[in-house]
Amino acid sequence: MTEVDSKKEMLMKKLLEKHQEAKIIRKIVLTVFTIFAVLFTGIIGGGYLYIKSALKPVNPDNTKPINVSIPIGSSVSTIARILEKNEIIKDDKVFKYYVKFKNESGFQAGDYQLNQTMTLDEIIESLKSGKVMQEAVFKVTIPEGNQLSQIAAIIAKHSPYTKQEVMNRLSDKEFINKMKQLYPETITDEVFHKNIKYPLEGYLYPATYSFYEEKPSLDDILEPMIKKTDEVLKEYQQQLEENNMTAHQFLTMASLIEEEATEKVDREKIASVFYNRLDKNMPLQTDPTVLYALGEHKDRVLYEDLEVDSPYNTYKVKGLPPGPIANAGKMSMEAALNPANTDYFYFLAKPNGEVVFTKTLEEHNKAKQKYLTNQ
Predict the structure, then answer these.
(1) Mean pLDDT across the chain, nearest whole number?
(2) Which phi and psi (to 5°) does residue 181 adopt?
(3) Are 189 and 87 within one domain?
(4) Residue 341 has pLDDT above 80, yes or no
(5) Most distant CA pair in the chain: distance in Å?
(6) How many domains does the chain have?
(7) CA nearest to 267, candidates 349, 322, 169, 148
(8) 302, 368: one domain
(9) Is residue 102 part of a domain?
(10) Closest by CA position to 335, among listed 271, 242, 246
(11) Do residues 281 and 354 make contact, with C-beta atoms less than 8 angstroms apart?
(12) What is the pLDDT of residue 48?
């Protein structure tokens, strides 16, 4: 083979190699393009199906009324989030853009009764017309500072259930675990502590609750009260984390403040006394815990009462009691997180409701002699 023939052969070989390489590249490009085309089609198709689904009612078969409150001044975004949170719509963003696309406005604040069968147009019309919820069949008002047995009696008075039925359900481990699953940040394993008297003591928020059925299930009566506590605690979540305080500890401290407070009292100062005592490893020595341990309601705690053998007796046991001794309102909750900066270690309530704060036991005893003698 001549040198020219050899060069021609090498050139042909290289051309063939390049041709093969080009074929492989074309195959790779075609494959990649096909994959991207399939993915793109899938994304577009998936997005279309998702939006199509989000425009439909959440559940066409569920006519159970859901109470929804729209605060004054709510934007469309806020309304959309509230509706999604209450499971009236599937996606807040889809609802927001749907409202924008239809150029809807004029939504009115108020308390609405909606359900999962409603279309987006029906929801929009209801919010625009201000058509509020129907009249309640019955209402239950839970005051601040009430213990579980008192709350059970109130529920029994207004509903078809007896006090014992309410107490039994509130102590039922199946029900408590059900609430624990629904509200895991609020209902924790701390409620199952061996020394707890009632696991859900302090977890039924003081408020007025409206019911729209003649005989709702007992769970449907109790769950909104726990849900409300969960909603309120979410407002304080950051502060609780900063204070390294669990929801259970928080509700316990707030309940002590609630039970000691009077109309004229500075709750922040009461909170400061409790925290000052905890810091010094002193017993809290708060009478309401003794009454809770006794299971009685008395105007005055006697010296013999202070000897009651109970983990709730803060005259004998240091630290917080095992759990709340009542439900607490917002004022007591705020005080539990924002105690006053004082050096008080004692306080007592005068007959007129005013509270005297003192720094030493000697000062405290003098105040007792002055204000409580012959009472």
Answers:
(1) 85
(2) -70, -40
(3) no
(4) yes
(5) 134
(6) 4
(7) 349
(8) yes
(9) yes
(10) 271
(11) no
(12) 64
Of 150-154, 171-175, 214-218, 268-272, where does mean pLDDT reach its minimum? 214-218
d(CA 44, CA 274) in angstroms, rounded, equals 60
The strand pairing partners of 139, in sequence order, are 210
**Which residues are 66's β-sheet partners?**
114
Calpha distance 293→197 (Å, rounded): 9
What burial letters (b/e) apply to 142-171, b meaning 16+ CB within 10 Å? Answer: bebbbbbebbbebbbeebebebeebbebbe
pTM: 0.67
3-state secondary structure of 1: coil
- DSSP for 156-215, please give it: HHHSSS-HHHHHHHHH-HHHHHHHHHH-TTTS-GGGG-TT-SSTTTT-S-SSEEEE-SSS
Tokens of 105: 């406005």
In a domain, 221, yes or no: yes
Residue 363 · residue 343 · CB < 8 Å: no
Cα 257 from Cα 289, distance rounded (Å): 11
Cα 99 to the center of its chain, rounded Å: 29
Structural tokens at position 218 = 């007992």
The pair of three-digit structure tokens given for residue 132, joined into one six-digit string: 């509020």
Sequence-separated (6 or more) residues with CB below 8 Å from residue 236: 250, 333, 337
- 123 and 154 part of one domain: no
Burial track 240-278 (b if 16+ CB lie within 10 A, e otherwise) = beeeebebbbbbbbbbbbbbbbeeebbbbbbbbbbbbbe
pLDDT-based confidence at residue 280 (cuts at 50, 70, 90): very high
Helical ranges in the chain per DSSP H: 3-54, 76-85, 92-101, 120-129, 148-158, 163-171, 173-182, 218-235, 237-242, 247-260, 267-279, 287-294, 330-337, 361-372
Q: What is the share, in percent, of the chain residues with pLDDT greater than 70?
A: 84
Long-range contacts of 152-155 (CB under 8 A, 24+ apart): 155/221, 155/222
Is residue 272 domain-shared with residue 361, that is, in the same domain? yes
If phi over 0 gives left and psi between -120 and 50 gives alpha, with beta otherwise, what is residue 295?
Answer: left
Handedness of CA 196, 303, 284, 259 (dihedral sign): positive
d(CA 254, CA 167): 22
Which residues does residue 357 pair with via DSSP β-bridges, in sequence order? 347
Q: Which domain holds residue 96?
A: 66-129
Q: Are residues 328 and 345 in the same domain?
A: yes
User: Positive or negative, the Cα torsion across 179, 184, 187, 192?
Assistant: positive
DSSP 8-state class, residue 359? S
